[in-house]
Specification:
heterodimer, A: alpha+beta, globular, B: alpha+beta, four-stranded antiparallel sheet, 3 helices
Chain lengths: ~600, ~120
């Protein structure tokens, strides 16, 4: 790669608008690609217009489960093509000399087959078959790169499992490393609403039922009426065959809603870790494929996937953590809720992606590991080659009397706070978990919401305070019930009392025990196994230690602002209720023997070092 | 999808030329699409759905629709002069309404689609 410029904004470094547009416009065709077991995969191929017979181009492979091509309604079919609104923007890639191969994964869209769960081993192997097909095409130069966001991002990452020599770079965006903690059961709390909605959406998509879009994504529904069949399937005969095959599909909510533990197995012996990426670390490393992975501080638990990939994979890589929603369509920086446009724009972002891909297919590629991250409120991009970044240390802040938060250890031998769980508390439906459906993120009205929570607030800070990394909470807590959950919110309170959400973390109390086993992967956060045998009901009235991390963040809390930690026992529009019945009261103990506290990951500013 | 909204009205105006033939109570739409529609230009039911979704016209409104797939033309014939005037008025604001619905949906106002009937087979 070129030398880094003064700016640490990755989109300025890698995103200069291309000097030359190689092609103008593109032609679309679609085919079925046969897999090794005969199952046919629907593929759209976008080829630059005017490509000479001798031209050989690299290919961008994008694997989706959300329909590779849309059957548009009138009048949109007359002005847009079947890829309208699609990510990636085909025209950007084709104009810069890429062929785009956009496929419906097995069991979805217009592809044949069925699926017992997402990203089965068979589906992952399809990636290699598709790459084989691509490099056998007359327009291919034998080099393939792959990107994706969310589901497709995981497909891009899993493509590396195949270690196919033609794959020159992968770009997983906004996707998990550990499916259990990053999305399905963060802190052991079931992400009920998302899992339910995502399964509902998937089932309807796989049955070519656009009605579901009317409820979930009406702006998409008014544009399209279904999946576009493959060329030549004029009467949709093949499409109907595929839909029939999809009726054997199973969906994650039905499969895992009663699976609380990491080692719960599905009827076929599959565990949730079988869809995660960390168990395939060795395969990804063996491929040595360069990785460009990106996400947002505010996207679900996927933010932690960036940190874990960075810590665990030896592959050359660039990680990027910004301040947008899931998929980067909307800005999400809670310090600037009035912002209307995401920065960088999708075009600026994709130009950066193409430049990075070009360097992997034609240039020096990526050397070493760099993580670019955006510090919110400071509004500044930074970069690091190590994690946590230089200057990182933990500063301990104790929960004190009168809802205070201070660096002084508590003195009161009888200090505690009682809190009756309010099961109506919610972060709403525009939070870091609902954004997984592509929704904007807004944690508004926190002042009012905090009135229902148990809060601890510092005095105004005398100096700016940069938090970058995982804050870790240690609670000494008792409950009246055997089961329960604790949700912790880190917030900024400005001089006028305006409360801004920064990040949060959650823990189901039965999973409180930390594990002495070697962790499944390197992590900067307290390790618990989430296994059935490690789960322990709370002993009512007994004080237990609970240590858990908040999702990673980077923020500057300005001089004069206060730090607040707010605790809730439920987030009703997102997670399952714990316990299922009853209304526990919890007691957070804050005495010299059991001083509950938060360790804040502070970055010593350069002038302090 | 939201990125397309500002461009949409001009794209529709440029791609679809509308001719009102008052004496015959006919409306002719000539479409010049840049996209290869591969015999998937239009069918009459889709035209009705378009008028319903973006113009509020009843799905069973009496009209004859002739589709010329090859030349990308749609001829709409109305029974009476009043019906012709009604559909003409809708047609004249159809693209504005379409963009308006998009804008409202983008802002989260889903009420704009509340009165749309079940148009999916």
């Amino acid at each position: 790669m070129e030398q880094l410029k003064d700016s640490e904004n990755p989109f300025e470094i890698y995103g200069e608008f291309p000097k030359r547009k190689l092609y103008d416009g593109y032609e679309i065709s679609s085919v079925y690609i046969p897999m090794r077991d005969g199952v046919k995969i629907a593929a759209n191929i976008s080829i630059p217009k005017g490509l000479s017979e001798n031209a050989r181009l690299p290919t961008l492979l994008y694997q989706t489960r959300y329909w590779r091509a849309l059957n548009l309604r009138l009048p949109f079919r007359w002005i847009f093509n079947e890829h309208v609104g699609a990510i990636p923007i085909h025209e950007l890639f084709t104009s810069r000399g890429y062929v785009v191969v956009y496929i419906d994964v097995r069991g979805t869209g217009a592809s044949y087959g069925s699926r017992a769960f997402p990203w089965t081993e068979v589906e992952v192997k399809d990636g290699a078959d598709i790459v084989d097909w691509i490099i056998s095409q007359p327009w291919s130069n034998g080099k393939v790169v792959s990107n994706g966001i969310s589901y497709s991002g995981s497909c891009a990452e899993k493509l590396a499992f195949n270690a196919h020599p033609a794959v020159k770079a992968i770009m997983p965006g906004h996707c998990f490393w550990d499916a259990y903690t990053d999305v399905a059961l963060p802190g052991g709390c079931y992400n009920l609403q998302f899992m339910q909605m995502w399964s509902f959406l998937g089932r309807n998509l796989d049955q070519n039922n656009p009605k579901v879009m009317r409820t979930i994504m009406p702006i998409n529904w008014i544009v399209m009426k279904g999946i576009k069949p493959v060329d030549g399937d004029n009467e949709s005969k093949m499409l109907y065959e595929t839909i029939k095959e999809h009726s054997a599909n199973l969906y994650v909510h039905e499969l895992v809603q009663d699976k609380d533990y990491r080692n719960n197995l599905l009827s076929d012996g599959t565990a949730i870790d079988d869809v995660s990426n960390f168990p395939k670390k060795d395969k990804i490393e063996a491929s040595n494929v360069p990785i460009i992975h990106w996400c947002s501080w505010l996207d679900s638990g996927y933010v932690d996937a960036i940190i874990h990939r960075f810590l665990n994979l030896k592959n050359p890589q660039i990680g990027i953590l910004g301040d947008w929603n899931h998929g980067a369509r909307f800005p999400a920086n809670q310090f600037y809720p009035e912002r209307a446009k995401v920065n960088p724009t999708p075009r600026e972002r994709i130009n950066a992606w193409i430049n990075l891909f070009n360097s992997c297919t034609e240039g020096k590629g990526i050397e070493g590991k760099t993580l670019f991250y955006y510090t919110m409120a400071e509004e500044k991009w930074k970069s690091t080659h190590i994690w946590p970044p230089e200057g990182h240390h933990y500063e301990r802040w104790y929960f004190k009397e009168s809802n205070g938060l201070s660096m002084e250890k508590p003195q009161d031998k009888n200090g505690f706070d009682k809190y009756k769980i309010n099961f109506r508390t919610t972060t709403g439906r525009n939070n870091r978990w609902w954004t997984l459906l592509g929704l904007p993120i807004s944690y508004s009205n926190r002042e009012k919401i905090d009135e229902k929570l148990l809060t601890y607030t510092s005095t105004p800070l005398k100096n700016d305070f940069e938090i970058t990394g995982h804050a870790i909470i240690t609670l000494y807590l008792s409950s009246t019930h055997e089961d329960g959950a604790i949700y912790a919110y880190l917030e900024d309170v400005d001089e006028n009392g305006k409360v801004t959400y920064i990040t949060d973390g959650q823990l189901r109390m039965i999973h409180r025990e930390l594990s002495s086993e070697p962790p499944l992967y390197d992590s900067p956060i307290p390790y618990r196994s989430y296994k059935r045998e490690s789960a322990k009901p709370m002993n009512p009235g007994e004080i237990s230690e609970m240590k858990f991390a908040l999702h990673a963040t980077s923020v500057l809390i300005q001089k004069g602002h206060k730090i607040r930690i707010a605790f809730a026992g439920n987030d009703k529009d997102t997670f399952s209720r714990y316990p299922k019945e009853g209304k526990p009261t919890i007691k957070i103990v804050r005495n010299p023997e059991h001083p509950s506290f938060i360790d804040l990951p502070k970055i010593k500013r350069k002038d302090e070092r | 999808m939201e990125d397309m909204i500002p461009l949409m009205k001009d794209m529709l105006k440029n791609a679809i030329k509308i001719q009102y033939i008052e004496e015959k109570r006919e409306i002719l739409l000539k479409v010049s699409s840049q996209h290869d529609l591969k015999a998937n230009f239009a069918d009459s039911n889709e035209v009705k759905i378009m008028f319903h979704m973006f113009g509020g016209l009843d799905l069973n409104y009496p009209m004859k629709i002739k589709i010329d797939n090859k030349n990308q033309k749609i001829l709409i014939s109305l029974n009476t002069y009043e019906q012709f005037q009604h559909v003409k008025r809708i047609m004249e604001t159809l693209w504005d309404n379409t963009v308006n619905i998009f804008n409202k949906l983008a802002l989260g106002d889903f009420s704009v689609i509340r009165n749309i009937e079940d148009v999916d087979e």
